[in-house]
Amino acid sequence: MATTSNPLESELQTLQQQAQEAIATVPNLEELEQLRINYLGKKGQLSQILRGMGKLSAEERPRIGSLANEVKEALQASLDQQKASLQTAQIQAKLAAETLDVTMPGVSRPLGRLHPLNSTIDRVLDIFVGLGYTVATGPHLETDYYNFEALNIPPDHPARDMQDTFFLADGRLLRTHTSPVQIRYMESHEPPIRIVAPGRVYRRDTVDATHSAVFHQVEILAVDKGLTFTDLKGTIKEFLRQMFGEELPVKFRASYFPFTEPSAEVDVQWQGKWLEVMGCGMVDPNVLKAVGYDPEVYTGFAAGLGIERFAMVLHKIDDIRRLYNSDMRFLSQF
Ligand code: 2NL
């Protein structure tokens, strides 16, 4: 049978050629899908050509039919292949765009540190904990009894003048020292006791380079059978040796506190000067009685120090207010 050229045949061939070219150069998946609809869709170009098959003779119909099928399969194969390669390209582009540059400098967050007052408190506590003391804390808002009366400071005692503070209308007050913590601890514990009480305290003071209405204290208290002034001296000398990092000349000067008898101020010679660093004494029998301890059986010693004063001496700080200003240029030096 002779093969006669048929217009449908060349139309199919042209269609295939054009379609292959278009598919090969399509830039993205969306346009590729448009091409598929355009060529192979229900109303696409191939369908339109096939509509003309009704006019073909019975001999020609199978030949054109199978040619149409070949074109359809070829185009479908090209579409599939191009789809796969565009998808791969899309993934590659996405991966390239999301590449992590490990050589890029990071966002730096400045490291925080302890405030010099807190690091000084921590050093003091560490030393006393090393000597067998237990840390105790208590309320800042106190009653007159715990802040004054139990400490042998009756209502009209002149020592109240130096410890004027802030009062609430109901008579409660902001504690002027951490001693109330020790009173509370003694009320709830039997001797022997060894405690160290750190914390914030308050006084009605006019602020200047060496005074603040809010400051920090650490007090120690030991009560046991047979404790003497020698135990107090040895404890304080060992504390100061660890605090200043070497054995310094230490002087105990007679002094007065309502809650100790005898009482002393402690001076250390440091960098050529005598510095007053703490106060101390043997616990007054009246204080022991107030918490229900028998002063004929037990004796005790106590000491107190101002943290600001210690920090200022250790770090050569000239003005107490620098400790409260939150100026990082100052604080980051410690
Ligand atoms: C100072 C002096 C001192 C005490 C605090 C105390 C506490 C109790 C009983 C007896 Cl419960 N004493 N504390 C004793 C002597 C001195 O502090 O110059 N502080 C900054």
List the topology elements.
Blueprint: H1 7-25, H2 29-40, H3 45-51, H4 60-97, H5 116-130, E1 134-135, E2 141-142, H6 144-147, H7 159-162, E3 173-174, H8 179-188, E4 193-202, E5 214-224, H9 229-244, E6 250-257, E7 260-270, E8 273-283, H10 285-290, E9 299-306, H11 307-315, H12 328-331
Parallel strand pairs: 1-4
Antiparallel strand pairs: 2-3, 4-5, 5-9, 6-7, 7-8, 8-9
Bound molecules: 2-{3-[(4-chloropyridin-2-yl)amino]phenoxy}-N-methylacetamide.
The site of 2-{3-[(4-chloropyridin-2-yl)amino]phenoxy}-N-methylacetamide has 20 residues, from helix 8, strand 5, strand 8 and strand 9.
Key attributes of the depicted protein:
12 helices, EC 6.1.1.20, 334 residues, cytoplasm, 43% helix, ATP-binding, single chain, 19% strand, binds 2-{3-[(4-chloropyridin-2-yl)amino]phenoxy}-N-methylacetamide, seven-stranded mixed β-sheet, BirA Bifunctional Protein, domain 2
User: Distance between the terminal alpha carbons, to the nearest Å?
Assistant: 105 Å
CATH architecture heading of the largest domain: 2-Layer Sandwich
CATH topology of the largest domain: BirA Bifunctional Protein, domain 2
Strand order of the largest sheet: 1-4-5-9-8-7-6
| Alpha plus pi helix count | 12
Query: What is the CATH C level class of the largest domain, in words?
Result: Alpha Beta
How much strand? 15-25%
Count of DSSP strands: 9
The best one-word shape is rod-shaped
Q: What ligands can be seen in this structure?
A: 2-{3-[(4-chloropyridin-2-yl)amino]phenoxy}-N-methylacetamide
Q: How many domain regions?
A: 2
CATH superfamily (homologous) name of the largest domain? Bira Bifunctional Protein, Domain 2
- What sequence of helices (H) and strands (E) makes up the elements? HHHHHEEHHEHEEHEEEHEHH
Low-confidence stretches: none
Main β-sheet description: 7 strands, mixed
Q: Residue share in helices?
A: 40-55%
How large is the radius of gyration? 46 Å
Average pLDDT taken over every residue: 92
